[in-house]
Amino acid sequence: MLYLVATPIGNLEDMTFRAVRILKEVDLIACEDTRHSRKLLDHFQVSTPLTSFFEHNERDKGRQLLEKLKSGLSIALISDAGTPAISDPGYRLVRLCHEQAIPVTIIPGAQAAVSALAVSGLATDRFVFEGFLPAKRKGRCERLSDLANEPRTLVFYESPHRLAATLADVAEVFGVDRDVVVVRELTKLYEEICRGTAGDLVERWQDEKVRGEIVLLVAGAPEREPEVDLESAVRQALATGAAPKQISRELSKVYGLSGSDVYQVVLQVKQGAKVEQDA
Ligand code: SAM
Questions:
Q1: 20-37 confidence digits (pLDDT tens)
Q2: Do 23 and 55 sit in the same domain of this protein?
Q3: Could you tell me if 22 and 85 lie in one domain?
Q4: Most exposed of 6, 76, 170, 232 (fewest Cβ within 10 Å)?
């Protein structure tokens, strides 16, 4: 069995009882950085052997871990913080296990993107997790442009030294009025949830040296009003049998036009319909 075990994203009290038990029971723990994870595991008196599994050894190591799993060993996968396999190479090991019919299960817990979304106050009914944006400005602006009309809340991971530049790009591509939330150092001493428009947050962060871990959230693009087609609206209203004056009065409010302008359109549509009928 491969166990995906979530670990805290800052506050050690967020470790779950089940995570500690499973980490003690498995034969081996695969982690990104053995020195980093050893400290966490020592804190919880877990003495299970550790092995490294990260971006650059992931192919060979993945195969070795798979062989061990096939031979009957149980392995836990953890990341430096939060839920393994989310925005880290762990997902490839999970896929290999599924392909080889090795059972995979999860011990859920802290997850930075979802925790930040929950505290952001932005819409949570639909959201898109975009991971890290490209580090270079050109690539970043291209990615943001692709997302400019996305109506779902956008969730990004961001490094502190790029925050100011990324906020400036967000303001440029999405407009200064788009709502943005910067969630920093969640569950830690200097936790901060900074909300405002893109313009506000560019100002707030432009001269400040930013530290810590960051999730950047951007409100989805406002749903656009359906294209207004006055003639179709007039046609539909005439079909209900409403009188031209009443139609002009009501539609002039909806379309922000003068009653007489709409009345002309009503007459034209009526005339057109009559011509069609006579023909
Ligand atoms: N797998 C992890 C998870 O599920 O939370 C995320 C791994 S990702 C490589 C690391 C990124 O998560 C950081 O660069 C930062 O953007 C975000 N992050 C992690 N811990 C955080 C925290 N305490 N507060 C805010 N963001 C955090």
A1: 999 999 999 999 999 999
A2: yes
A3: yes
A4: 232
In a domain, 225, yes or no: no
- How does pLDDT run across 181-235, given as a tens digit for each residue? 999 999 999 999 999 999 999 999 887 789 999 999 999 998 765 556 888 888 8
Query: Burial level of 46, CB count in 10 A (0-12/13-18/19+)?
Result: buried
Alpha helices in the chain (DSSP H): 17-25, 34-43, 58-70, 90-99, 112-120, 137-147, 163-174, 198-205, 230-239, 244-255, 259-278
Residue 194 falls within a domain, yes or no?
yes
- Residue 86: what residue type? I
Report which protein residue has its CA nearest ligand 1's atom 7. Answer: 87
Shared domain for 168 and 211, answered yes or no, is yes
Number of domains in the chain: 3
Give residue 234's domain range. 230-278
